[in-house]
Amino acid sequence: MDRRSFLKIAGTSLGIGALYSVAPLLGADGEGSEIARMLWKKHGERLKPFSFVQLSDTHVGFNGPPDPLGTQAYERAVDMINGLRHRPDFVLVTGDLTHDSEKPGEHADRMKRFQEISSRLRVDAVRCVPGEHDAGLDGGALFRDVFGPTFYSFDHRGVHFIGLDNVSRAKPEVGPEQLAWLKKDLARFPTTAPIVVFTHRPLFDLKPEWEWFTSDGDEVMNALASYENVTVLYGHIHRQHEHAAGGVRHYAARSLIWAFPDPATTADKKPLPFDKEEPFKNLGLRLVQEPGTRGAVPDPPTIDDVELTMREYSGTVGINQFLKEGAAR
Questions:
Q1: Are 50 and 156 in contact (CB under 8 A)?
Q2: How far is CA 201 from each of CA 21, 70, 101, 217, 268, rounded to the nearest angstrom?
Q3: Per-residue pLDDT tens for 44-80?
Q4: pTM (2 decimals)?
Q5: Can you give the three-state secondary structure of the chain, one letter per residue?
Q6: In the list 53, 55, 95, 324, which could disulfide-bond 200, CB 3.0-4.6 Å?
Q7: Does residue 141 contact residue 150 with C-beta atoms inside 8 Å?
Q8: Confidence at 13, pLDDT banded by 50, 70, 90
Q9: Tell me, what's the pLDDT at 327?
Q10: Is a pLDDT exceeding 50 seen at residue 261?
Q11: Given this model, what pLDDT does residue 277 score?
């Protein structure tokens, strides 16, 4: 079984983030059926298709340019998720839930505001890891008080999910204690187990001069190297990005607050300006359909870019299209 056999992706934006359809071992036979039997026996859950949503960088509490919408985008994303015909099982939020503040009590109020908005989601669970705006000022103390551990794992319908914290230390790193925990956690699983890692910063050197990296990311990936079915989801860079290395694919979700430019075309990390005529330029809807396989060579993925609009500005066409396409998966 390779990664393609358990993860299908329908990515979106404005940042409603990305909707993932997971089909573990569909049509399982041979090796697949043996893995399914083993995981069911080990974890007590039958492998069944399911879906979840990744959101990122909501920055609740941020107010000002370049995004005059503030937390409206997050509230809108919640409405869109609740409008899906088929309810996702849960939502992952890959960091920067809130925008930090040194004003006494204000950051805690923003975390409560995030919780209040999140409580409207009609899903079974909302799983979060911190971003540097959540944990950078106090090493994650407030985050832990409000949301619980900054790194943890859980199983869902035969897929093992691992949330990593690469923002709470002085350097952008996971750190030796968490690496030891990760190796112990992974040791419980066979190398064929489907694994989804979610974190805030990228675990590879995407753009170190923009702080788009994790200093010990190579050690994390080395710990995962023997596992055959690993997908990494992250945020932080406020733009959609895909990266493949050593059989692992990394996917970044767009932000719900503003977009950063493409570092391949500009040296300035200045957020893209808000344009009322095109309020969600660079934040459009993108659907990625996993390819089929003909012979030994997989087909290329089918990617459809769809402009997403907000009804506050120009109607519901984009939203309706999202609901239609998302519900089909």
A1: yes
A2: 23, 22, 20, 9, 19
A3: 556 667 778 888 899 999 987 777 778 887 887 888 7
A4: 0.79
A5: CCHHHCEEEEECCCCCCEEEEECCCCCCCCHHHHHHHHHHHHHCCCCCCEEEEEECCCCECCCECCECCCCHHHHHHHHHHHCCCCCCCEEEEECCCECCCCCCCHHHHHHHHHHHHHCCCCCCEEEEECCHHHHCCCCCHHHHHHHCCCCEEEEECCEEEEECCCCCCCCCCCCHHHHHHHHHHHCCCCCCCEEEEECCCCCCCCEHHHCECCCCHHHHHHHHCCCCEEEEEECCCCCCEEEEECCEEEEECCCCCCCCCCCCCCCCCCCCCCCCCCCCCCCCEEEEECCCEECCEECCCEEEEECCCCHHHHCCHHHHHHHHHHHCC
A6: 95
A7: no
A8: very low
A9: 36
A10: yes
A11: 65
Q: How far apart are CA 184 and CA 227, in angstroms?
A: 14
Q: How far is CA 61 from the centre of its chain?
A: 20
Retrieve residue 258's tokens: 């503003």
| Pair of tokens at residue 49 | 């298709």
CA angle 238, 4, 58 (to 5 degrees): 20
User: Per this entry, what is the length of the chain?
Assistant: 329
